[in-house]
Structure formats: C-alpha cells, structure tokens
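Open question from group meeting: does this chain pack into something compact, or does most of it stay loose? Before anyone orders reagents, we agreed to write out a predicted structure and look at it together. Recording both the input and the output here so the notebook holds the full record.
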Amino acid sequence: MQQENSQLFQKNNLVLYKSYAARIIDIAQKIEIELDSKKRKKVRNKDITKLHPGPVESFSDLKPIDGEIEEVCKTFSGESVTLPELAELIYSEYTVSSAWATYKLLQDELYFYGTPEKIHIRTKDDLEKEIQSRKQKYEEKVKWEEFINRIRNNKIHEDDKNKCNSLKDFAYGRGKTNKILEELRIQPTPENAHRLLIKLKIWDETVNPYLKRLNFTIPTHFPEIPEIEKEERLDLTYLEAFAIDD
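Structure tokens returned:
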C-alpha cells in the first residue's frame, strides 16, 4: 500500500479532500494531509484527488487570479478537457494557484461541470440556460425571504394568503412538516399552524380545524323513516296534568 501511495502521490502535492484544499505532508500506509485550518488527517489514496504536483509551500498561494474564462468557453464550447489542460487554457499556465482557481470554477458549475479528470465546457445555449435558471432561483429565494419577513412582522399582503395554503393544510392535519413554520423556527404542529393563521387574520375563531383533522364529516343525507302503522289509541287529552317542582 505504501508503494502504491508513493507512485500516485508525493509530498507537498496539492490535493482535494472533500472539496477542501490540502497538501501531502507524509506518505506511509495511509497518506497524511494538512488542511488550510492546519488540521492534519490520515486518509486513503481514494479519499483524495491530485490537483497539482506542487510543491505547496503555503495555502496563501491559493488566491484568486484573473483568467480568460468566457473566451475559453466560446472557443472550446462543448468540449471536454482535464483540469491541467483547462488551467493552461484559462490562465496560460498550470500552477498551484491556477489549478485551485480552475477547481473552484468547476465546483461552481456555471461555465464548466464534471470531475477534475473530465471537465465539460458548457455550450453557449447551455450556459445561457444555466444563467437564467440561477437568476430565477435567486429571484424566487428573494421573494420567499420577503414573504417570510412579512409573516414575521405580521404585515402580510392580500396575495400572501394564497401562499399560506400549505399552512392551512398543515393545521388540518395534512402533512408531517411545514416549511413556513420551520423557516420561522416555530415547532411544526397543527396547533401552532392554527395559532399563526389566526394571528395573521387569515382565519378567525369561527374556523374549526379539528373536525377535518379527525376526518369527521357531518352527514347531509339521512335514511327515509318508514311510516308507522296506524293503530287505535286511547284519547286521554281531556285529563288535566300537573307538574310539581321547586
């Protein structure tokens, strides 16, 4: 195992460990690495990926650098390359800094996606779709945060009431959790959903969720009552009746 590790890695290689930058400081049965936090760990060779042979003298070498990202996307649209090749294309050199900068671009998955061994460069159409998708997600996130803040401040808009339908369903006992309550850090129970709906004046005290929560329904159709057969009865209506109470 030590010989195999020595063939794959050397001291001061820049490696990737769980999306963190690390450098190799010793190679034995297991490989000892050091993270940017100065924390050291012993890992297996399959736990790390080599990004650059190094040497990595300091993690301060892993600083942001400028490169021709968009130009590379236009020129090599739709092609697949390795991390060293992409670093050369974008930064005109394959160094510790450019290797890490290239990996960070890969991690973001905007212009490129894949693994360090096989990186796919997005086509123009694919890139535009990804940009639009991220823009839409960002706008939805902003709207959601604004909605939650209005609930938090008890100042909801009229059209916010429809957004609270999930809260109504939860108050009726439908579902095991509720995103609105979790976002507000309120314990997700039907009772708390009920209280919040009353506080927001979406419901009032006349709304009773317990019947639906218990799956109780009030019948609206009743069976027909058969006619009682006519019979001779003794007429005592002429008698006076008295009741005694306090």
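Observations to bring back to the group:
The chain has a mean pLDDT of 91.
The beta strands are 14-17, 20-27, 31-35, 40-43, 48-52, 80-81, 112-115, 118-121.
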